[in-house]
Amino acid sequence: MYKLAFIGGSINSIAGYPHFIASQMDKRFKVVAGVFSRDKKVNQETATRWNVKRIYDNWQELIEKEQKNIDAIVILTPTPQHAEILIELLKRKIPTICEKPLVSSTEEIRMIEKVYNPKENFLVLTNNYSGYPMLRELQHKIKKGELGNILHIRLKMPQESFLRPPKSVKYPQKWRLKDGFIPMISLDLGSHLHHIAFFLLQEEPSKVLASYDSFSKYGVVDDVNMLLNYKSGIKGNVWLSKAALGNRNGLHIEVYGSKASAIWHQENPEKLVFSYSTGQKIIIDRGSDVEMLPNKLYNRMTPGHPAGFIEGFANLYNDIANSLDLFLQREKYISKYVYDFEHAKKGITLLHMASYSNKEQTWKSLSE
Ligand SMILES: NC(=O)c1ccc[n+]([C@@H]2O[C@H](COP(=O)([O-])OP(=O)(O)OC[C@H]3O[C@@H](n4cnc5c(N)ncnc54)[C@H](O)[C@@H]3O)[C@@H](O)[C@H]2O)c1
Q1: Class (C level, CATH) for 131-301+348-360
Q2: How far is the CA of 82 from the centre of ligand 1 (A)?
Q3: According to the model, what pLDDT value does residue 159 have?
Q4: SS3 state of residue 264
Q5: pLDDT surpasses 60 at 346
Q6: Phi, psi values for residue 329, rounded to 5°
Q7: Where in the chain is the domain with CATH 3.40.50.720?
Q8: Would you give the distance in Å from CA 60 to the centre of its chain?
Q9: Which of 110, 131, 174, 206 is least crowded, fewest Cβ atoms below 10 Å from its Cβ?
Q10: What is the pLDDT of residue 196?
C-alpha cells in the first residue's frame, strides 16, 4: 500500500473528503500525513476525524520531514497555489498527484516546464470524471467505431452555484472570485471538459471561438461558451456556467457519429444511451448483456446498486497506483486512464486561447 500525504483538502474543503475516501477505497493508498489547512484548528480537526497521526503547520515543513517516509503527495490547495508547491515537489522528485487544473496560466506552465523532467518526475492529474465506467465504455465504443465517424460533440457543465450556492460548504470561496487572464470558471470546469473531450475523441481541438459572460453579483466570468474545430472535421460545443439555476452539477456529454449517437448525464451516471441510424435506442448499464470493458472495480457491488462519483474517483486512484508501480520500475507510467503534464498543458493552452478569442471575438488557432 502506498503512503500518501495531503497538502490542502481539509474537512472544510470541497475536494478533500472525496480524495480521502477514494484514494483508500481499494487499499492501494493510505493517507499517513498532511497539512490539510492553514487554519491550525481545522488542520487538527481534520487529522483527528481522519485518524491521521502526522500533521504539520505548513507544506514546506511537511515536505522536509516526510519526503523520505511517503510515496506520493496529493495537492488539494486552491488552484492559484498549485504552481509554487508543484515546483518544490518536482525539484525534489517527489511523486505528485495534483488536482485539476494543474496551474492557472500559461506563465505558470512555463515555470513548471523549467523543472519538470518526464523521465524523472511522476506527475499525474486527478481528472476524475473519466473514472466513470460508462465514460470508459463510451471511449471504447468510439474507438471501435460503433458510432461511425464522429461528427460533433457537445459538452456542458452548467451549475447554479453563483446564484444558489450549495448549503453543505462555504461557497464561493474568495479564491474562486478572482479571475486571471483565464477566468476561474474555465480553470474549475473547462479543464474537466477539455479532459473529457480528449479522453473520448483522442484528438485535441485545433481552433477555438469563445464568448464569456457575467450574470451573477460577483462581477467575474460565470458563463462561457466555446466552439471547437478539430483537424479531423469534428465540431465541438462547450458550455460552462455557474449561473444556471436548476443545475447542481449538470455535467452532460453528447457525442454524435455517422452511425449512432451517445448521451451520458452525470446525475444518472450508470446509464449510457445510444441512438442508432436504424431509429433504435438502447440504454446500457453495468448489468446489460452486451460486451463491456472487463474491470472488477466496476462491480464493487452487483448491478442495480448504484455507484457514482466517489467510486469513479476510486477507479482513477487505482489506475494511479498502477502507474506508480510502473514508475517505480522505471517504466513509462502514463496509461489510457492516467494523464500527465502534457495533457494539462494542452488544456491550459486551450483555455488561454479561448480568452484571446473572447477578447478579440475571432477564432484562434491552437497549433503551436
Ligand atoms: N476533481 C473535482 O471534481 C474537483 C472538485 C472540487 C475542487 N477541485 C480542485 O481541488 C482544488 C481545491 O478545491 P476546493 O474546492 O477543495 O477548495 P477549498 O477552498 O474548498 O479547499 C482548499 C483547502 O486547501 C486548504 N489550504 C489552502 N491553502 C493551503 C496551504 N497553503 N497549505 C495547506 N492547506 C491549504 C484550505 O484550508 C482548504 O482546506 C482546486 O484545484 C480545484 O480545482 C476538483
Answers
A1: alpha beta
A2: 10
A3: 97
A4: strand
A5: yes
A6: -90, 10
A7: 2-129+316-340
A8: 25
A9: 174
A10: 98
Q: List Cβ neighbours of 22 (8 Å cut-off, separation of 6 or more).
A: 128, 310, 311, 313, 314, 316, 317
The average pLDDT across 32-42 equals 98
79 Cα–ligand 1 center, Å: 7
β pairing state of 96-99 and 72-76: parallel
Average pLDDT across the chain, whole number: 97
What SS3 class is residue 115? helix
81 lines ligand 1 (CB under 6 A): yes
The pLDDT tens digits for 176-227 are 999 999 999 999 999 999 999 999 999 999 999 999 999 999 999 999 999 9
95: closest CA among 318, 320, 314, 313? 320
Peptide linkage before 158 cis (omega within 30 of 0): no
DSSP H/E element including 223: strand 223-229
Count of alpha carbons within 13 Å of 91, Cβ hemisphere only?
11
CATH number among 3.40.50.150, 3.40.50.720, 3.20.20.370, 1.10.357.10, domain 2-129+316-340: 3.40.50.720
CB-based contacts of 314: which residues, under 8 Å, 6+ apart? Answer: 21, 22, 23, 25, 26, 131, 297
Q: Does residue 78 have its Cβ closer than 6 Å to ligand 1? A: yes
- The torsion of the CA quartet 182, 184, 187, 189, rounded to 10 degrees, works out to -130
| Confidence check: pLDDT of 356 > 70 | yes
Q: Which pLDDT does position 368 carry in this prediction? A: 55
Between the CA of 172 and the centroid of ligand 1 the distance, in Å, is 12
Range(s) for CATH 3.30.360.10 in the chain? 131-301+348-360
Grid cell in block for residue 154: 457537445
Is 283 in contact with 246 (CB distance < 8 Å)? no
Does position 353 have pLDDT exceeding 70, yes or no? yes
With a 6 Å cutoff on the Cβ, whether 128 touches ligand 1 is yes
